[in-house]
Specification:
Strand content: 35-45%
Helix content: 10-25%
Largest sheet: 5 strands, mixed
Number of helices: 1
Order of helices and strands: HEEEEEEEEEE
Distance between the termini: 38 Å
Shape: globular
Radius of gyration: 17 Å
Structural class: mainly beta
Strand order of the largest sheet: 4-1-7-8-9
Oligomer: single chain
């Protein structure tokens, strides 16, 4: 294997190793929470080699200076992790997870495929006993990757016709100079 090939493989593998190794804790809905909703991911992966989609529950907005890496740190917990062909990433709640209802849920969705990635942070307030599906539209333009989240609800019990949920955009924040 020549040096160029080794560099390409390193660029493809590094983000996935990092996603698994530099890690936020896994979110578990406390037993005391009785008002809950169900969240699952529906993402059509178009990666050539492998991909992954991770959804983190956040307690604070991401830092602007490090949007890709920040979700693995500072106030975030993994809710869902789905691997698409990458044996180095362990799925977490690939079929969905229960989340608190009746309170604002801020989340980051991180998509990685082949040698590209993107992160988006948004928020919404889940309703009690409702079922939600998070989809992530991904595209590239001028060498950059972009994510557009969408959430649909099928109402209480997941039996109603799907309707789109309004998402609140969450802006990144610049951490104090001492924290950088």
């Amino acid at each position: 294997m020549n040096e160029s090939m080794v560099q390409r493989v390193a660029v493809l593998v590094f983000p996935f190793l990092l996603a698994g190794c530099v890690s936020a804790p896994t979110y578990v809905l406390p037993d005391s929470v009785t008002d809950r909703a169900f969240l699952k991911v529906d993402h059509k992966d178009r990666s050539i080699i492998s991909g992954a989609l991770r959804v983190d529950r956040r307690t604070e907005p991401p830092a602007c200076s490090n949007l890709f890496m920040n979700p693995a740190f500072q106030g975030s917990e993994k809710v869902i992790m789905k691997s698409f062909g990458n044996p180095l990433i362990t799925d977490i709640n690939p079929d969905g997870a229960w989340i608190p209802a009746g309170e604002r849920l801020m989340f980051s969705a991180i998509w990685m495929a082949d040698s590209s990635h993107c992160t988006v942070t948004a928020a919404f307030t889940p309703e009690k006993n409702s079922h939600y599906v998070l989809g992530l539209e991904t595209f590239s333009k001028d060498g950059r990757s972009y994510c557009l989240p969408r959430i649909l609800t099928a109402g209480q019990g997941g039996t109603e016709a799907p309707t789109r949920v309004e998402l609140e955009s969450v802006k990144c924040v610049e951490p104090p100079a001492a924290a950088r």
